[in-house]
Amino acid sequence: MFSKACEYGIRATIYVAVQSLEDKRTSLKGIANEIGSPVAFTAKILQQLVRNKIMSSVMGPAGGFQIEKKKIDQITLSQIVDAIDGDSIYRGCGLGLKECNTAQPCPVHDKFARIRDELKYMLNNTTLFELASGLETGLTFLKR
């Protein structure tokens, strides 16, 4: 459903949020290790997230990535997805056809439209704080 970059981006953002809630910055290598992603790939993803103001980065020995505490409960999952994958997840065909619309629907068009609407609702109404809280309490995990 999400691109691999988006999956890693969501996991990275959640991890950075947890660290930020503890007033810590985290390094690129630390993030890559925690989410099980190659360092170079993680760097590109984090650049997109910084460019889209989801998180910030600080250079130097005490540097790293962080998210302002006050923003953690304002950032939604849809903002993270949009920063990496754009809004194509809300427009794509359930069968992968290039052209699919109500005038010329694919066999799953109507059913998939409902799923996309529910997904959009979930992404718009799930905050980074909710996701970070589950990780912080040990109820959820970023890698196995």
Layout: helices, strands, pairs:
Layout: H1 4-21, H2 28-35, H3 39-51, E1 56-58, E2 64-66, H4 69-72, H5 77-85, H6 109-124, H7 128-136
Antiparallel strand pairs: 1-2
Helix pairs in contact: 1-2, 1-3, 1-5, 1-7, 2-3, 5-6
What does this protein look like?
This protein is mainly alpha-helical. It has helices at 4-21, 28-35, 39-51, 69-72, 77-85, 109-124, 128-136, and strands at 56-58, 64-66. A two-stranded antiparallel ribbon has the order 1-2. β1 and β2 (64-66) form a beta hairpin. α1 packs across α2 (28-35), α1 (4-21) crosses α7 and α5 (77-85) crosses α6. The longest helix is centred in the N-terminal third of the chain and has 18 residues, at 4-21.
pLDDT averaged residue by residue:
92
In spatial order, strands of the major sheet run: 1-2
Number of strands: 2
Largest sheet: 2 strands, antiparallel
Task: Report the span from N to C terminus.
Answer: 20 Å
Q: What is the rounded Rg?
A: 17 Å
Q: Helix tally?
A: 7
Top keywords for this entry?
mainly alpha, two-stranded antiparallel sheet
How would you summarize what this structure contains?
The chain has 144 residues and is mainly alpha-helical. The chain contains 7 helices and 2 strands; from the N terminus they run H-H-H-E-E-H-H-H-H.
